[in-house]
Amino acid sequence: RMATGERAGLLKGEDMKAEQLALRRREREKLAAMDAEMMGQGAETVYRDRKGRKLDMLQEMMRQQDLAKGKKVAKEAEAFDWGTGAVQKREVEARAEEMAKIAEAPFARTADDKDMNDYLKSQIREGDPMAAAMMRKQRERAAKEGGPGGKPQYRGPAPPPNRYGIAPGYRWDGVDRGNGWERKLLAYKAGKAARAEKA
Description:
The chain is mainly α. The protein is built from 6 helices and no strands. The mean pLDDT is 82. This is BUD13 homolog.
């Protein structure tokens, strides 16, 4: 016999099946005869820390979970600090201030609400005869603040077209210093469009 209790050697299928059934029946009887307490039925859960030490109570485990959560929040804050630039941080702070301001404001707004009136005045509407003056004012304000719209604009001759539609300006003077691939691509696209229009 083998260590598992099965017979060794060449066996018929029926003999093997009968032997397996007998082994299973004996295992079930052995388990049924065992004491339930010995088997761990109704036993309390043992909580352990990372190093395998038993924790005295559930509160200790909860404390460790809170600690881990705090570390996770700190890591996320650090990742935000490292992953964003000064402008993005200022934008987030400005957005948070704006939201706090909105939360403090009364729900019902009246006609003499200064913030709402300033916002509505700053909007440029289609068909407004003063729209050009408003746009100029906004550009001047942006130039003073140094925002993305406040960068100097290119005022030279018309630049060659490019597939991204990037206008020359603060970083690029509009001179194509490439190997001519961009020009060939645009010529091919224009020819393709002309052929499609002709057909």
